[in-house]
Amino acid sequence: MPHDHHDHPHTDLPSEPSLRVKALESLLLQKQLINRDALDEIIDTYQNKIGPQNGAKLVAMAWTDQSLKQALLDDPMPVLQQLGFYGRQGEHMKIVENTDDLHNLVVCTLCSCYPWPLLGIPPSWYKSDAYRARAVREPRKVLSEFGVDLPQATKVRVWDSTAEIRYLVLPQRPAGTEGWDIPQLQKIVTRNAMIGTEILPPQNGTLESGEA
Fold first, then answer.
1. Is the pLDDT of residue 97 over 60?
2. Catalytic: which of 111, 124, 128, 209?
3. Which of left, alpha, beta for 194 (phi over 0: left; psi -120 to 50: alpha)?
4. Residue 34 covered by a domain
5. Residue-range definition of the domain harbouring residue 63
6. Are 81 and 123 within one domain?
7. Which residue among 26, 67, 113, 128 is the active-site one?
8. Going by DSSP bridges, is the β-strand pair 93-97/155-160 parallel, antiparallel, or unpaired?
9. Do 155 and 69 fall into the same domain?
10. Confidence at residue 24, expressed as pLDDT on a 0 to 100 scale
11. d(Cα 176, Cα 202) in Å, to the nearest integer?
């Protein structure tokens, strides 16, 4: 899906935004316009509490409820709104399902559009120029570098996120998880699997309650 360079807010970012953000943060702290503890709490919330736990729970729910899964594939927004997995950077979502015949990979070629309410803060490699360019040009090679080696018969589809729409991959449920409940399943769903750069491995037994 093409981006619009004129309408996209991220196209105005400087060439080295991380340095400028750090300088701005230091200035705001110096002028006591922001609080360091509050800022750290916000970052921790998105990294460790909100996401990717929300996305993992959604995937686990889809694995255990066929009607919910179909609703997510058809139009996820009503379900996301009902669950509260909704907000800035998550207004327009599309769920794409991995199968034996199709593997999905998500990228944002112009910047780093990403479903924060479901996956938290994007990893640094997702925002890198190399990933953004190569994921579209040579997706199989990029996946191989992540340890994902797909059969040639499996088609790879790359989804380009924009300010208008963001994507989340519904990974295949691993073998050996039959009978697991949602909290157990949620613990094995990774952020990378929901971006498409990981295939969840088979499980060899029942996950004990409370096991990480």
1. yes
2. 111
3. alpha
4. yes
5. 53-195
6. yes
7. 113
8. unpaired
9. yes
10. 64
11. 6
**Residue 67 a catalytic site member:** no
- Report the C-alpha gap between 192 and 196 in whole angstroms: 6
Residue 5 identity (one-letter amino acid): H
Give catalytic status of residue 108 as yes or no.
yes
Mean pLDDT of the chain: 83
Q: Among this protein's residues, is 144 annotated catalytic?
A: no
Q: Which of 112, 124, 144, 161 is catalytic?
A: 112
Give this prediction's pTM: 0.75
Q: For residue 94, give Cα distances in angstroms to 79, 90, 142, 173, 198.
A: 12, 10, 23, 19, 19
How many CB atoms within 10 Å of residue 166? Answer: 23
How many domains are there within the chain?
Answer: 2
Same-domain check for residues 19 and 99: no
Residues 138 and 109 placed together within one structural domain of the fold: yes
Identified catalytic residue from 108, 144, 161, 209 = 108
